[in-house]
Amino acid sequence: MIPAERRQIILDMVSEKGIVSIAELTGRIKVSHMTIRRDLQKLEQQGSVVLVSGGVESPMRLAQEPSHHSKTLLAEAQKAAIGQLAAQRIKPGSCIYLDAGTTTLAIARQLHHHQDLTVVTNDFVIADYLLDNSDCTIIHTGGAVCRENRSCVGEAAATMLRHLTIDQAFISASSWSLRGITTPAEDKVTVKRAVAAASRQRVLVCDSTKYGRVATWLALTMSDFELLITDDRLPEGVERALNEAGVSVLLAK
């Protein structure tokens, strides 16, 4: 059976059942565990399925971005651990970007002891926190204001970022998979792509609860990132698939 035929059977089974185990797939298609895993990784890179522990399921669609307030109540312990681990990788004297979000806010909360640091952000909450709790030089992108997320989006913010040279960009997302990060808000795409182009290292900081969600707009592919910092609850096989794609993974515990 050729790969295209196997993958169509996988898609048909997932469509019928919602979630399918690897054992079911190997039993039905009569190929090895590794062959099935390669097929699943290919399908996830295409955005057709999402790997879960021991199997695969249909992606969960994110219709709209959660508000800043609602995000502060989600995965608090995981975000704090990610923030602490990410902050340990920031070098003195560097210029970093903190994307809008509560995971990146957790990084900002670790910067009160960092010296000679320039922080670029499009997030008003992050800028306000650093004003009161750090000696960092702060650059805000400006741009059109997204009230729900307390941040700036759109072409004006992206234009500002294109004039900078950034050492590390810590980029957040409300939905991600092996394919990349997606968003239901088109005006966020141009900002994320602009900062990715302006940065020497791109780091995705995202907890595992957001893995497997998809939204309308593909902002960045996983190949755009050198590093993912997440928590230790990723589904089985995801870390290995990312490593094989050239993305290093750090798990915060």
Describe the protein:
- With 253 residues, the protein is of the alpha/beta class.
- The chain has 2 domains: 56 residues, Arc Repressor Mutant, subunit A, CATH 1.10.10; 185 residues, Rossmann fold (3-Layer(aba) Sandwich).
- The chain is built from 10 helices and 16 strands.
- The strands form 5 sheets. Strands 7-6-5-10-12-15-16 form a 7-stranded parallel sheet, with helices on both faces. A 3-stranded antiparallel sheet has the order 1-3-2.
- Helix 1 packs across helix 3, helix 5 crosses helix 6 and helix 8 packs parallel to helix 9.
- The termini are far apart.
- The model has no long low-confidence stretch (mean pLDDT 92).
General form: elongated
Order of strands, widest sheet: 7-6-5-10-12-15-16
Q: What's the CATH topology label of the largest domain?
A: Rossmann fold
The chain-level structural class is: alpha/beta
On the 0 to 100 scale, the average pLDDT is 92
The Cα radius of gyration reads 19 Å
Overall number of domains: 2
Largest sheet: 7 strands, parallel
Helix content: 25-40%
Q: Give the N-terminus to C-terminus distance in angstroms.
A: 42 Å
Instruction: List the secondary-structure elements in sequence, H or E.
Output: HEHHEEEHHEHEHEEEHEEHEEEEHE
Named at the architecture level, the CATH assignment of the largest domain is 3-Layer(aba) Sandwich
The number of distinct β-strands equals 16
